[in-house]
Amino acid sequence: MRLLWILALAISIISCKSKAEIEMEQYYNRGEILYTQYCSNCHQADGKGLGLLYPPLDKSDFMEKNLDEVLCIMRNGKSTPTVVNGKTYEQPMQGVTALTDLDIAEIATYIYNTWDHKRGIVKVDEVSAKMNSCKSE
Ligand code: HEC
After folding, report:
1. Would you kindly state where each structural domain of the chain is located, as residue ranges?
2. pLDDT of 136
3. DSSP track, 9-63
4. CB-based burial label for 72 (10 Å; 0-12, 13-18, 19+)
5. If you measure from the C-alpha of residue 2 to the centroid of ligand 1, how many angstroms do you get, rounded to a whole number?
6. Which residues does ligand 1 sit against, CB inside 6 Å?
7. Residue 89 — φ and ψ, nearest 5°?
8. Among candidates 69, 47, 68, which has minimal Cα distance to 113?
9. Residue with CA nearest ligand 1 atom 41
């Protein structure tokens, strides 16, 4: 009996997650679902994009340098050429206007912590603070 109790205690300690970890997991998991729904058609499930039509997200110097702009692009789209890893992409991207600030935060958390990126959580208040200053392109 005592052994079982110790075992149960050990398991609960090992699986104990901090509030921040749980929040990260929630953002990330919802972000993955939204990414699959709204973005993977073009950028692909593996984030590699498609030729010179759709730029990659798995490795993207553009993403690394322009978090604020990426948040805006998700909702507002982008119609000027974009240079990603030295290649120029000329096709415009249409924004997904239905995305809420929380959706954008979750998708950003997913794409910025998958593949080559390890930025950490992008929270909804950060997104809300930035969405007002999006430039229209
Ligand atoms: C219909 C196809 C399509 C969909 C859907 C789409 N994109 Fe894009 N995306 C593009 C194209 C094309 C560009 C290049 C735009 C330009 O250069 O003007 C782009 C550019 C980008 C960029 C900047 C370039 C880079 O590779 O770093 C990011 C980041 C991005 N998209 C993320 C997303 C996210 C996140 C979603 C889902 C919310 C999404 N896109 C949905 C086609 C798409």
Report:
1. 19-131
2. 60
3. HHHHHHT---HHHHHHHHHHHHHHHHHHHHTHHHH-TTS--BTTTB--SSS-HHH
4. buried
5. 57
6. 38-39, 41-43, 54-57, 60, 62-63, 70, 73-74, 78-82, 84, 89, 91-94, 96, 107, 111
7. -110, 125
8. 47
9. 39
CATH superfamily of 19-131: Cytochrome c-like domain (1.10.760.10)
Q: What are phi and psi of 2, to 5 degrees?
A: -60, -40
Kindly state the average pLDDT of the residues 8-23.
Answer: 84
Name the band, by pLDDT with cuts 50, 70 and 90, for residue 10: confident
Tokens at 8, concatenated: 């149960």
Give the three-state DSSP class for 84. strand
- Spatial separation of the C-alpha atoms in residues 98 and 4, rounded to whole Å: 51
Span 68-126, pLDDT tens digits = 999 999 999 999 999 999 999 999 999 999 999 999 999 999 999 999 999 999 999 99
Report pTM: 0.91
What's at 88, amino acid-wise? T
The C-alpha atoms of residue 51 and residue 68 are separated, in whole angstroms, by 25
